[in-house]
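Let's sit down with a protein and look at its sequence and fold side by side. Please make up or recall a protein chain and show it to me in full. Label the sequence line and the structure token line clearly, so we can match residues to local backbone shapes. Go ahead whenever you are ready, and we will take it from there.
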Amino acid sequence: MAGGVPMNVAPVQGGFLTGKKLIFPLALVISLFFLWGFSYGLLDVLNKHFQTVLGITKLESTGLQVMYFGGGYFFYSPIAAEVLKRKGYKVTILMGLGLYSLGAIMFWPTAHFTTAAHAKASFGGFLVCTLVIACGLATLETAANSYAVVIGDPATASARLQFCQSWNGVASFIGPLIASKAFFTGESQNNLTNVQYVYLAVACAGLAVGVLFFFAKLPEVEEQTVRRGSVVQDGTLELGVGHDGKIIGEGPLYKQYNMIFGFVAQFCYVGAQVTIASFFINYATENATYSSAQASQMLSYALITFTVGRFIATALATVFESNFLLTIYCVCAIAFNAYIAAGHGKAAVGVLIAIFFFEAPMYPTIFTLGTANLGRHTRRGAGILVMGVSGGAVFPPIQGAVADAAGTRISYVVPLCGFVVVLAYVVTHWARHGFHVMRVKSESVIATSLEGGAVGGVLETVHYDEKRLSVAAVENIRRNSVGGSVKAVTGGVNAY
């Protein structure tokens, strides 16, 4: 990498690690996923707690989401990517942990010196703390997703990344579970004392992980050139070549319409997901008989549902076409969301928990569909899809304004609109690719990228119909893959 390999870094021999050598680096990466999952779980709880203690409105409380998703993911992710390119994974991860711990430590003086006389000013201080934490988390996510992919065998990259991300889900429901006891019980429900201690513990955890990374001989994977053409979905086409003979992704970036619409869908999905979680406690306390502590526990159950839903959706995706699955999930999410906006009582809260199950596969599936067949634009396209996370900074203020004016229940029409946009995108994509229901084995597989996710970088396994894809085309796939690394090429019942 440009800038050289950092100290205490062992370059990977042979392209990736295997066996026992993979365990320790992967365990360190999992710790990063756990840290930001825990922080995200606390974020939604703080919305309600700050409303109670600082006397701010629902709209004002969404400033936390604006800082987290807008400041951190939209503005700071490009900076993190540049540091990753120039300095490597270890330096980038240490920078992220440093910012994460600094932001958490800043919660201590902000909470300690908060008084009723300057509550609004104190909330401004919490917004700054959240921004610093978000910059650290955006840096960690930029590096960790990529590192989890490239450190091991390309053939198991997707499973490895999915396993690491599952710890994000585990930590995200632990956060609200702890907060239900620390923020909403006894004297703590009317002050910020426990906020100080919780975030001090978060800072210590970040620093401890940082020390481990600093002294660890973390293997560094050299950046390689991403292949020019992407594997396409139609078995009648050779690598990166369409029916018109043009190389897929050869046109300008602004003409990659699937990517552009994928970004819009991702923006709306993340916005919908964040608003559903941000106002969960408000909904449960206003629309049913739950206390804030009970509602916080219910939120943790919803996040458990999300984590379980991700595993189940991953298993289903090995049998069914992703377009078809996401269409079904979107229809269910829209139906459930409509009931949430119209229903009352504990049943409506139960449906609110259930909708998390149908949200689970949306982000990775939209990311995969939106970055398919970009060719030379693969990395830029992936970056644009990641910027779709900024929808989490736009939707909450809109929902907050509606909640203040018409009530929390009615405000859930905002995420409903987001799911409708996602459905329009995925149905269009599904129609363009033949309305397949079952996974088509003869189709070429979009491969796992160097920079994380199925975006066309490292090639895992290429499936093809041997009657339609020539041996020369298969060799072309081998030559155009990253470093010539194709794990396996199969056709029909025969294997190359």
Notes: The two ends are 33 Å apart (CA to CA). The chain has 18 helices and five strands. Residues 270 and 312 are 20 Å apart (CA to CA). Confidence is low (pLDDT under 50) at residues 1-14, 223-245, 442-474, 477-496.
